[in-house]
Structures are given as C-alpha cells and as structure tokens.
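WARN retry 2 of 3 for item q-0093 after timeout on previous attempt; input resubmitted unchanged.
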Amino acid sequence: MPDKILIFNVLSGVFGIGALIIPVLSSIQGQNCGSRPIAVSLSAYILALVFQIFDIGERVKLQDWTALADTMEWVSFTAALFALIIILLNIILLRIKS
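OK item q-0093 returned
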C-alpha cells in the first residue's frame, strides 16, 4: 500500500508544479491563447488536491494516524498557499493577455 501513497504524492507534486508553471510559461510566450492556460492551470491544481485527498484516504485505510497527525497541518497550509499563488498568477496572466 505504501506504493499507492508514493504514487499519489508524486502525481500531486507533478500536477501542482504544472499548475504553477503553466501561467508563467504562457505569459512568457506572449501568445494569446484565450483562457485555455488558466483553465488548464486551475484543473492541474484541482487534480493535485484530488491526489492529496486520495493520499489521506489511503493513510486512513492503513490507520496511519501518526502520519496524518504529523502532516495535516503542513498539507493544509501548502494547499492554501498554492491556491493563493496559482490564483494570483492566473490573474496576472489575465491582465497581461487583455
């Protein structure tokens, strides 16, 4: 079962980093792609959160309460911080494109 946890964390990280990179690359390229990069960025962030929820669910199944207690504060803080950064990056992208 720890293999699932590893996979969920890796996928969450990949989608989270993708959600951060997409608006930055889109603004650097300067091409007007409409709202597609914003939709893809927000979708990637949602997928990152979904994989974090799967990770938490897997830990609950394993009754790994210590791991949950140790990581939940950090996971919550990181999710909120990523949401704020991704929203701000997409707002900046909207302003650059318009």
